[in-house]
Amino acid sequence: MRIGGYTKKYFRERAAIGSMMLRGVTLVYGPPGAGKTTFAAWYTYNSYDRVFWVSAFEDEETFRRNMAALGYNFGGKLVYWEAVLAGAEAFFNTLLDAVAREKPQALVIDSVTEFLAAGGGLDILHNIIYRAVKQSGVDVFLTAEREVAQRVAYVADNVIELFYEVYPYGAVREAVVRKIRGGRAGYTMPYVILEGAGLLFIAPSSVSRQVERLETLTCIDEVVGGIYKGLLHAFVGPPGAGKTWHMLNVARSLRDRGVEPLLISISGAGSIYAEKFGVETIDVGLDLGEFYAALATSKAPVIFIRGLETFSKLYGIQLLYTAVRTLLKLARTGRAVVVSLRDLYDLDVLFDVIVKIEDRAVTGVRAPGGKIGERVRC
Fold first, then answer.
1. Are 344 and 351 in contact (CB under 8 A)?
2. What is the torsional sign of CA 145, 150, 154, 158?
3. What is the 8-class DSSP label of residue 132?
4. Would you tell me the crossing angle of helices 122-130 and 88-102 to the nearest 10 degrees?
5. Which of 353, 375, 67 is nearest to 225 (CA)?
6. Which residues are in the AAA+ ATPase domain (predicted)?
7. Distance from C-alpha of 148 to C-alpha of 22, rounded to nearest angstrom
8. Is 244 within 8 Å of 281 (Cβ atoms)?
9. Which pLDDT belongs to residue 3?
10. What CATH class does 2-201 carry?
11. Bridge partners of 353?
12. How far apart are CA 43 and CA 232, in angstroms?
């Protein structure tokens, strides 16, 4: 099955790239709308063959329908319980008996906020977690609202905090890895939730430590050595200097050599330019969520972006910083990312490669290779 030109297998591979080894007890918390249920579904769907799901607020038919719309069709590998919150101790004991009988690999309690509000108590919750994990070897996933997260965080081996904010420029979601048992923590991963694709990380946790140089057979090779997978590039110059022309010329050359690039154009006009060069283009509006969705669903090894600073002109420089920081994380996963800008706005520290463009002449300002400081007319 294909979704927007991509296969189900592709999205599952993207999920695997962004996945963390969540073993033992995992707490996922955040505000309403952040995607706590979707996060738990994403991980368990891609990681286990047998899942026991307990929900305090959603019936099974609605849950399966909503998850199938995101691409998570659990089918027969899901055992679903609609929780009755009265008599929490009796309920949990019955649940443990069911877990022992069904023998799932993962148990999801969605959400513990409702259980605690119903008077279940931390001692009962701790008991069921201990018995499920220690006695049955089941991985447990708990979702919670932020206000109760600290009350249950101490029992968790892994803690993931989700952020969700809606701004005039679009919705922004980020996952902050607070704690990972035996693994690296303290990092942030922006993500989007798309119908048919589910939860997709824009810049997954995997980091490429290798930089690969791609020759472009253009004057960019002379001044900075080429385009580099694993690095973030800036093509900087005034309006009309030829930044878009240079990006598309490089993109066309890469495509002719077997590398399929992508141009993302913010706020229009991208496809008009790109058609002449035969470069795949996605036009997005002034919506950061739409822009992030384009990044998350792209499998291009080289991504060119024009119009990014339009966000800063309308919403302030902080938004440009946020977007560039996300692009740097994306580049560190092994992609080459090239952004055209009129000015660096004191963000030069975030760029690995900087090319100054004026009157179709290029000058290398920063790069691993090339003739830095030499001006070349193209």
1. yes
2. positive
3. I
4. 10
5. 353
6. 22-166, 229-343
7. 21
8. no
9. 34
10. alpha beta
11. 233
12. 29
When pLDDT is cut at 50, 70 and 90, the band that residue 274 belongs to is confident
**Cα-to-chain-centroid distance, residue 139:** 23
Contact indicator for 282, 263 with CB cutoff of 8 Å: yes
Helices and strands, number each (H, E), in the chain: 14, 21
> CA-to-CA distance for 6 and 244, rounded, in angstroms?
27
- Reply yes or no: is the peptide bond before residue 136 cis, omega within 30 of 0: no
Spatial CA neighbour of 156 closest among 22, 26, 20, 23: 26
| Stretch(es) of the chain classified as CATH 3.40.50.300 | 2-201, 212-377
Half-sphere exposure in the Cβ direction for 126 (13 Å, CA)? 8
Task: Pick from 125-139, 203-217, 241-255, 267-281 the range whose average pLDDT is largest.
Answer: 241-255
Give the Cα separation of 302 and 251 in Å (integer): 8
In this structure, are residues 323 and 308 in contact, taking their beta carbons and an 8 Å threshold? yes
Looking at the predicted structure, is the pLDDT value of residue 323 above 60?
Answer: yes
Residue type at position 279: V
d(CA 362, CA 219): 8
CATH architecture of 212-377: 3-Layer(aba) Sandwich (3.40)
φ and ψ at 33, to 5 degrees?
90, -5
* pLDDT tens digits, 50-98: 999 999 888 999 999 999 999 999 999 999 998 765 566 677 778 888 8
Q: Interior CA angle at 222 toward 218 and 226, to 5°?
A: 65
